[in-house]
Amino acid sequence: MTGRLNSAQPYVLGLFRIVVGLLFTCHGAVALFGVLGGADGKGGTVELGTWPGWYAAAIELVGGSLVLIGLATRFAAFIASGAMAYAYFKVHQPNALWPIENSGEGAAMFCWAFLLLVFTGSGAFGLDRLLQKRSAAAEQPASDQAPVAV
């Protein structure tokens, strides 16, 4: 049983990355473009350049998109994890200690999910893996290739 679960690990990790990236991207799109109800629930957006709301939304949109497609996953996840740690400790935690009391569950969960992706990488279905395979194939010297028989 453990062997089967271990063999599925890259695929499940890839699906995890896709879902987390999509949800994070949606947060940024809500704040920046007013879609899905907008920042105020009425289609509103955050004002351009406001600290920290606009910058957080930009990180959510760009970082979430990169994580979603699996491109520069570790770097994007590191930045996103830090942004969510900042959001938790500066925005939510001053209201109460526990996330359930200060409405910081989302920030805490995203922070830890992205931190996990920093250490695991993109898993299956990511552009990181595709580019890594291509560069490894391009670096293979010609002498390692089997000769063609005539």
Plain-language structure description:
The protein contains 6 helices and no strands. By secondary structure, it is mostly helical. The mean pLDDT is 90. 68% of the residues lie in helices and 0% in strands.
SSE layout:
Blueprint: H1 2-33, H2 53-69, H3 73-92, H4 99-102, H5 105-120, H6 127-139
Helix pairs in contact: 1-2, 1-5, 2-3, 3-5
Strand content: under 5%
Which spans have pLDDT < 50 for at least 5 consecutive residues? none
How many helices does DSSP assign? 6
Largest sheet: none
What is the helix/strand order?
A: HHHHHH
Question: What's the average pLDDT?
Answer: 90
Number of strands: 0
Going by helix content, strand content and strand pairing, the class is mainly alpha
Cα radius of gyration in angstroms: 20 Å
What features would you highlight for this structure?
mainly alpha, elongated, 150 residues, 6 helices
Please sum up the structure shown:
The chain has 150 residues and is mainly alpha-helical. The protein is built from six helices and no strands. The protein has helices at residues 2-33, 53-69, 73-92, 99-102, 105-120, 127-139.
